Amino acid sequence: MQNFIHLESDYNNGAHPEVLHHLMETNALRSKTYGFDEWSEAAREKIRQATNCPEARVEFLVGGTQTNATLIDSILQTGEGVLAVETAHIAVHESGAVESSGHKVITLPSHDGKMLATDLSDYLERFFADETYPHMVQPGMVYITMPTELGSVYSAREIEAIESVCRQYDLPLFVDGARLGYGLMSDACDFDLPWLARHCHAFYIGGTKVGALCGEAVVFPKGDAPRNFFTHIKRHGALLAKSRLAGVQFDALFTDNLYFRISQHAIKMAQRLREAFVGAGFKMFNDSPTNQQFVIIPNRLLPVLQQHIGFECWQPLENDATMCRFVTSWATEVREMDCLADFLKRLP
Amino acid sequence: MQNFIHLESDYNNGAHPEVLHHLMETNALRSKTYGFDEWSEAAREKIRQATNCPEARVEFLVGGTQTNATLIDSILQTGEGVLAVETAHIAVHESGAVESSGHKVITLPSHDGKMLATDLSDYLERFFADETYPHMVQPGMVYITMPTELGSVYSAREIEAIESVCRQYDLPLFVDGARLGYGLMSDACDFDLPWLARHCHAFYIGGTKVGALCGEAVVFPKGDAPRNFFTHIKRHGALLAKSRLAGVQFDALFTDNLYFRISQHAIKMAQRLREAFVGAGFKMFNDSPTNQQFVIIPNRLLPVLQQHIGFECWQPLENDATMCRFVTSWATEVREMDCLADFLKRLP
Amino acid sequence: MQNFIHLESDYNNGAHPEVLHHLMETNALRSKTYGFDEWSEAAREKIRQATNCPEARVEFLVGGTQTNATLIDSILQTGEGVLAVETAHIAVHESGAVESSGHKVITLPSHDGKMLATDLSDYLERFFADETYPHMVQPGMVYITMPTELGSVYSAREIEAIESVCRQYDLPLFVDGARLGYGLMSDACDFDLPWLARHCHAFYIGGTKVGALCGEAVVFPKGDAPRNFFTHIKRHGALLAKSRLAGVQFDALFTDNLYFRISQHAIKMAQRLREAFVGAGFKMFNDSPTNQQFVIIPNRLLPVLQQHIGFECWQPLENDATMCRFVTSWATEVREMDCLADFLKRLP
Amino acid sequence: MQNFIHLESDYNNGAHPEVLHHLMETNALRSKTYGFDEWSEAAREKIRQATNCPEARVEFLVGGTQTNATLIDSILQTGEGVLAVETAHIAVHESGAVESSGHKVITLPSHDGKMLATDLSDYLERFFADETYPHMVQPGMVYITMPTELGSVYSAREIEAIESVCRQYDLPLFVDGARLGYGLMSDACDFDLPWLARHCHAFYIGGTKVGALCGEAVVFPKGDAPRNFFTHIKRHGALLAKSRLAGVQFDALFTDNLYFRISQHAIKMAQRLREAFVGAGFKMFNDSPTNQQFVIIPNRLLPVLQQHIGFECWQPLENDATMCRFVTSWATEVREMDCLADFLKRLP
């Protein structure tokens, strides 16, 4: 193997060439600002079509943590909490952005990264059965990630079950789709984008990790965004003055199915990555069907792997092993996966 | 006049061609993320040189409101307030982002957009002379804008006077430089970037309005950023996963003086714009030496102007007139200013 | 004059004897807690009668700043601001409690402590006429003080005019009644408690300054308190575990018109105080008809006055004089006012 | 058994007679306000003596949730989190007051209500070993409750072990002493108040649950309260205008050891309560040595018990039983405990 293979993340690269090309070809044009530019408008319309939601409110924010914090803060009433699994990005890796706007993240058990409707239902039943509940943080919405931080995907039945509990308790369901494309294009996924849009209150279509330089498309499928939502975005520092930056990129991503093509490519690369590891005798930590693959690496092999491959040590395990994350993206090449398979086979 | 002339803002355009080119030529490379990419590191070093601050801490955030909110929230102690003039961007046009993190904006009079050291000094003297001051919001820092929201620039003496009051009361001085280049390149400015860096606690070098697609470079000249500053950035949703987006752009902006060349060009265009208006008999609202020009337009002329020129109606005035803002940028062309002069002269 | 006369404030004393007596006679009884005790329930009912609002939601909080912060935070939507005059208690003397929960205090001019409906109307008209208003803090409610921080009282017409603007813009009107009794019992007041209750969304009846040891009774006349209002109170640290402390006191205050008797007594004492000063040749700062009297004291007299009388220097004036505040309460005695008149007459 | 026995809580009663008497005998006197009254000053001095901390900063707040929220918010830097066990009052029963000021409660396992130093140490070691820790909430202080929500007490060794970890990571240790007296007077406690004061950064001495009508005494043993601590108290709505209310009560509580006599009495009553239950064949849920006793009650007996005794159903258990809480206080009488024993023995 000659070259270093970069599998650290799906944001260690630039923009997908088609996205970059659209930035170039539109660069000389003057535009409106703050979300009113023509490309943002075009991208909105394309997303309304792709989600089959003609009434959808679509706004473009910059990054994932920002999008979660803005959405949660604007959907919740003052002081309410958001229910999420304990491995949720908002519960672990967002530096307390949700708490910064005054809201508690109420955690439920994680099942391979997923929330179980029964856990949610049990929590809420016990909560309201406890006479002291007015002394506790009132649950105000539910947050799930699709695909999850562990690469797993929800089935339609699982989401329907969660949605049903949400409806019973009048809790909006918000889906963090930082890697949504990789979830939807996964073989394990039994629903599509319009289906998802019908089954939640709000979600976002992650751009940063799916071929853009930055940008997340927030969607309220029924158009019922919180009052003064524009002001909420501005107040959270999430409003791009040159909104064309996000608009042009999403315009490209939703032209000729680019968003889904990128996702599908990364999934295929992830399958080859998985085959390479399993073929070389490694065990997978879990059964991720998306572009994040978690491999159990014996600690003695870490140095040699780190010399040739970029990846992240995720969590120490027993028996001198480490759970490591390898991630594919639009930029991962077939050639690289071949090299990887070769390299792994030759390991001592 | 054939074409519509866009003078609505300095962010109605794409990236300066040299910035765009650098994005293109680096796009295929893999990089570290979250601020550790090679271009961010290179840009940091170039900014340290341009500011003559080898110890400076430099971080790249996305937009102005976000940068103000993050900086102010991380510099202030819990519950403290920030002193600013009543026309300050943070006091008016940031949707309460500062208050959202629990801090009051304490306003002082605005003098053509500027804070007077004597007003600051008077406020603080009266504040601490009042026995009830512990019942009031404690002033924790001072915020000024350079150039101001009205296009004016501080003189070195004015900033030194403010700095001196700040030192007396142990208040950090923060300079919002969303349009910093246009201030520094103005004929009216009697200091340079290294001088400014020596005379404040923190400032930022605005990119969005000076040739980038997005990005603001925060500088702590002495390197004494607040503890856990990285976490503060993340918590405010201001951390770019693909930090190369900002890094590459600032790397370009601080190569071959591009940042200053862009600024100087816009200033020249603004001078021609001003001459065009004054030459056609218009009165200027104030004496702005930067790229924002404020013209008093008789209301009867608004429709015909709006047909041919993009600009903003800023404030209604007496005598059936309106204060209007015209803004130049890297994208404003000499040819456009010639057309403008022609067009204005021919107005009835 | 033998004894020092305490006129520093209306909270430099203990409880009114009838309030204290009720605390004593109920002390040995066991009770429910957190607002469900029998005296809180009784006081609620008496307040519903006194306000002629059988549907009113009534809750007892501890102090004024706390009550303002809790009410404003629970009534406003996230990020909205509260409109108040620049001399308002929440704008000046509450250490930024409102900002601490993320809300801006948007200030209007003060007219002897009062808000003018025309100022309010002008602000709102200009606000929504400005195209950039979504970039600004959205006004979410209106706050006025009755009587004001300067002792003045609103007329029914003035409140109706404000209420009318509020209705036009769908803004709840909240009346800070920290000294409500003194306002209502003033000769200058042309409305009563039931009238006030009909003309605002929420208000509170101050206890701390009107004979209680602590306690403020929050009233939503139509019963439409914010959702989860109990939880809001708890979250703001404003829920008394031994809620009987407030309940018993308000039960006493609203028995046999004690609240109004206390207020009326203090008003009478304030009139004598005023006569004493005016009779001795002093000038009043304003025409306060309530229990706070503001007198212009030549600075040369301050030392001798301070030797015999407790009062507060409020604000330095021109011509070597100071605006000083003298406050009466339930504890102020006729005898003391006689002494004061005597003392003032004999001043050189 | 004739009379209903009230064991619902230690705040279902009025003030201890000696506390009430002091309120009565001081009621007619005028005083300074906002914490500067003579009784607050006297109580401060008595607490300095009782804690053997001549330099201590002592402030009186109103209630427990308020005190926790104010202390934690003023000690933490912006955005930092507080470490506590998952059963901690701040994590469960304070309606998210900590999150409301922007801080996450980071939970560790609870061991009969207590935090283990090893859990704390493990958490911190793993936290800083994880390279992504700047993306997480930075731990800023440690919160423990003494006695705990489950009635258990820490040993001196356990607190020393926690303190040692705190020192290693430079984290202030804060002890919630809402029921501190009951912990210190417990037979199971092997340290006293001065010892505790030497082993933590801050703590509070609960008054509400130990004989006062309201009031918690915050102590910074070394005097190093956060900067502008007075303003923090005001900002949190925790400053009593008539501060004498708290001052007089704590003056009484710390005269002739009243605070400790009350606590000791309640402990003795709790022991008799425990003997009564165990003697009647009931099983205790845990081995609480303080004034809160947790008994496992078969569900079939709940109705008859509820007819004669006031208590709280805390948590459903397996086998048709419920964990119930019975609480003693200064007001619990020997006679009542005799009645209880009688009553329990006669149960079918």
List the helices and strands and how they pair.
4 copies of one chain form a homotetramer.
Chain A: E1 5-6, H1 17-26, H2 38-50, E2 57-61, H3 64-75, E3 81-85, H4 89-92, H5 97-100, E4 105-108, H6 117-129, E5 139-145, H7 156-169, E6 173-176, H8 180-184, H9 193-198, E7 202-206, E8 216-220, H10 229-235, H11 244-253, H12 258-279, E9 283-284, E10 292-298, H13 302-308, E11 309-310, E12 312-317, E13 321-327, H14 334-345
Parallel strand pairs in A: 1-11, 3-4, 3-5, 5-6, 6-7
Antiparallel strand pairs in A: 2-8, 7-8, 9-10, 10-13, 12-13
CATH class of the largest domain in chain A: Alpha Beta
Strand tally of chain A is 13
Major sheet summary line of chain A: 7 strands, mixed
What quaternary form is this? homotetramer
Write down the Rg of chain A.
Answer: 21 Å
* Percentage of residues in helical conformation of chain A: 25-40%
- Find the structural class of chain A using helix and strand composition: alpha/beta
Helical element count of chain A?
14
Order of helices and strands of chain A: EHHEHEHHEHEHEHHEEHHHEEHEEEH
Q: What is the total number of structural domains of chain A?
A: 2
CATH fold-level assignment of the largest domain in chain A: Aspartate Aminotransferase, domain 2
CATH homologous superfamily caption of the largest domain in chain A: Type I PLP-dependent aspartate aminotransferase-like (Major domain)
**Widest beta sheet: strand line-up of chain A:** 2-8-7-6-5-3-4
Low-pLDDT regions of chain A: none
State which percent range the strand residues of chain A make up: 15-25%
